[in-house]
Write a structure and sequence with these properties.
By secondary structure, the protein is mainly alpha-helical. It is 81% helix and 0% strand.
């Protein structure tokens, strides 16, 4: 497994949290009860594990690419970095708004709108990375450079813990009916009542 495989694997874990958020938004807007705790905990995941760990790892890839002085790489890196920044801002706002909803100071719709914006941004961003950026990294970075990047990933991982396990913990805390992700319109249960 090289550095890019690790990032792609993390995308799959992050997508589970995107699915959870997408379902929570749809369920809440459809009149179901969704605890703001779900959004607060999801925002914590986005800040700690997506921004703090996954995006930080990609930052190491950006540096490695930029160091090779490829102009095309720099343009792509700037665009992706800017999206990381926007994602961090939305996640921070989502955490604040979810806390305000808990205190009864804001309407749930505000957290739904932020969560929806984040999910949309993240899906497009991931698609760009996997279809364009990662193949370019594999072409441009020789094996030894890729190995050095991977060694830096290990340090980031040690500081933050496992992203996959954090996604597992969120799914366990807020279980979504198995049919819901495949068919979001099929609302049968309200698993978050009383949380
Ligand atoms: Fe990224
Ligand atoms: Fe990514």
């Amino acid at each position: 497994m090289d550095a890019i495989d690790i990032l792609v694997n993390e995308h799959r874990h992050i997508e589970r949290v995107m699915d959870l958020l997408g379902w929570a938004v749809e369920h809440g807007r459809g009149g179901g009860e969704v605890s703001p705790v779900l959004f607060e905990r999801a925002a914590h995941f986005l800040l700690t594990f997506v921004d703090g760990s996954h995006d930080a790892k990609e930052g190491e890839v950006f540096q490695a690419i930029t160091a090779r002085g490829v102009p095309l790489g720099e343009g792509v890196v700037a665009a992706l970095s800017a999206q990381h920044e926007v994602g961090r801002e939305i996640a921070g706002e989502l955490r604040e708004v979810a806390r305000a909803v808990m205190r009864g100071e804001k309407e749930p719709e505000e957290q739904y709108a932020l969560a929806e914006r984040y999910v949309r941004l993240h899906r497009g961003h991931t698609e760009s990375e996997e279809s364009r950026f990662f193949p370019m990294v594999r072409r441009l970075l020789p094996v030894d450079a890729m190995e050095r990047v991977r060694a830096k990933f290990a340090r980031i991982e040690a500081a933050h813990g496992s992203l996959g396990e954090a996604a597992d913990a969120l799914e366990l805390a807020f279980p979504v009916p198995a049919t819901a992700v495949r068919r979001p319109g099929n609302v049968r249960a309200q698993p978050w009542i009383g949380r």
